[in-house]
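Um, can you check?
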Amino acid sequence: MQRNYLIRFIFITALLAAIIAPFTFLKPQPMVIVTVVEVVPTLVEVVVPVVEKVKVIEKPLHQVNLPDFAAIYDIPTKKSEFFAFIRPAIEDKNNELSEDRTKLEFWQGQISLGLGLTEEEQASLDILIKAYRINKQASILQQINDLLVRVDIIPTSLVLVQAANESAWGASRFARIGLNFFGIWCYRTGCGMVPGGRNTGAKHEVAAFQSVDAAVSGYFNNINKHNAYHMFRTIRAELRAQNQPLDAGILATGLLPYSERGAEYVLDITDMLRHNQRYFVQPSSQQTALAD
């Protein structure tokens, strides 16, 4: 009996061991915990770098020591200094024209009396005929008469206010970079400065000059030669014919073609003539600048 019990005990024990054995030799695997993470979109602030526009500093196209008129904040001082700066070139040009005109009037008298011109006088006349584009086929008397309409002075006051108006009293880009105080255009590539607001397809530039004398001569040539200012020259010739002074206000009415603003431009010029009269009389070295 005991023997049977023992055999039975051993059998059950072996059976249990057989059942448990496979599991006792297994290595425990680490527990894997899966965590579900909710991805919440966030607003990311995108910083766009600010690119500052690089200011291009234009170098002057001339060697003139031009005063910094923009730095003069006192209006009377600015006016006095600007007019004093540009006046000598205007007066020199008017003196040159007066001398040429005196010669023409003398030659006109000579021809009217039936007297001819010397070779030297004829050579001088030929230079003026070419410069002012006078008809070479016309008679000498007619050529001289045509020249007298063109070869004439322009009142200093009128030139001064136009220079001030067109150049912002000498502070404009065109005045500083190219000594262009009168807004004169040119049409050859590289002849001057390209306007910032030039229309697409336009070819013109704002002329650049090497000296103040050249800039002033350019203005006088424009008024005395260009077909656009035929009316200006006609008014001036009529004043001469009536022995009247060359009044700047009257002559300003012939400047309608000078600006696209037309009549408004002429009104601006005539207003400037009235408001700046005290500056047109050149002060002596002892006088101080007049107050506005």
